Amino acid sequence: MRLAVGSVVVGLIVLALKGAAWWITGSAALYSDALETVVNVVTAIVAVWSLRVASRPADHDHPYGHDKAEFFSAVVEAVLIVVAAFSILHHVWLNLKVGDSLHTPFVGMAVNLVATVLNAAWAWFLMQQGRRARSPALIADAKHLGTDVITSTGILIGLLLVVATGILWLDSALAVATALYILWAGIQMLRQSLSGLMDAAPDDETLLRIRRTVGAHAEGALEAHDLRTRQAGRLTFLQFHLVVPGSMTVEEAHEICDRIEAALKAEMEGLVVTIHVEPEQKAKHTGVIVL
């Protein structure tokens, strides 16, 4: 929660700096950079809300918890990025109608550079913390800030070229390139966020780790099949069927389940496991075969 609040504070500082850089220069490219920072601030506020909701424990109406709220934050951020891209293109169109102009470019670029360095440092810190906490909202915020740093750097390099050559229309061209880049980034982020909301399975490497762990700690059982997984924020839900000999007691089967569950949770943080025990005639001879 403190990280999300920190993103709001950093975003407001960066927005003030980039807004000042645009105001000083009148640059369309720096306008696009400032507008993207507006998105950062709004989505940071949304992230505060989503993290507060996601931290609530499971209740009667939400027995699986509230962790999916983080995906809503990522979806909102992606949509706002797309909207910002079209707004930048509209601003460029208006700029071209009245003619390009650029005032005191070096002062504006210096102010923008300070904001970019601050953004880069915060993006790196957020990514480290987001991966550690397995938080989609923080990771999405860090990725977008990283995109912002890349576009800001490109804009500053481009503006140096504008000053060096005196070709003013390059400023508008930079703004268009920025809009197209963040539009692509927003669409990619939206696709990933919607996958989370649609209960997409984890990546193949994670699934392989689960299968290997189950196979290595299910001694006494015959097979495990019908593995299903879904992610909800920082939690991964796993369920599967475990086939045991028909002569095995409930207590013995329960001990195997406890052993598998302990191994899985030691291997993967934030894992919620449900195991359905079945007699040997239910074997399918597919899935994770326990030898």
TrEMBL record:
Pfam families, sorted: Cation_efflux, ZT_dimer
InterPro entries hit by this protein: Cation_efflux, Cation_efflux_CTD, Cation_efflux_CTD_sf, Cation_efflux_TM, Cation_efflux_TMD_sf, CDF_Transporter
Metal-binding found in the keyword field: no
Protein localization: Cell membrane
Domain (Cation efflux protein transmembrane): residue spans on this chain: 7-198
Domain of life of the native organism: Bacteria
Membrane topology listed for this record: Multi-pass membrane protein
A Gene Ontology BP annotation from the UniProt entry: intracellular zinc ion homeostasis
Record key words, sorted: Cell membrane, Membrane, Transmembrane, Transmembrane helix, Transport
Residue ranges crossing the lipid bilayer per the database entry: 30-51, 71-94, 106-125, 145-167, 173-190
Gene3D superfamilies: Cation efflux protein transmembrane domain, Cation efflux protein, cytoplasmic domain
SUPFAM superfamilies: Cation efflux protein cytoplasmic domain-like (SSF160240), Cation efflux protein transmembrane domain-like (SSF161111)
Keyword Secreted: no
GO cellular component: plasma membrane
Family per similarity comment: Belongs to the cation diffusion facilitator (CDF) transporter (TC 2.A.4) family.
Identification of the protein by name: Protein p34
Upper classification of the organism: Bacteria, Pseudomonadati, Pseudomonadota, Alphaproteobacteria, Acetobacterales
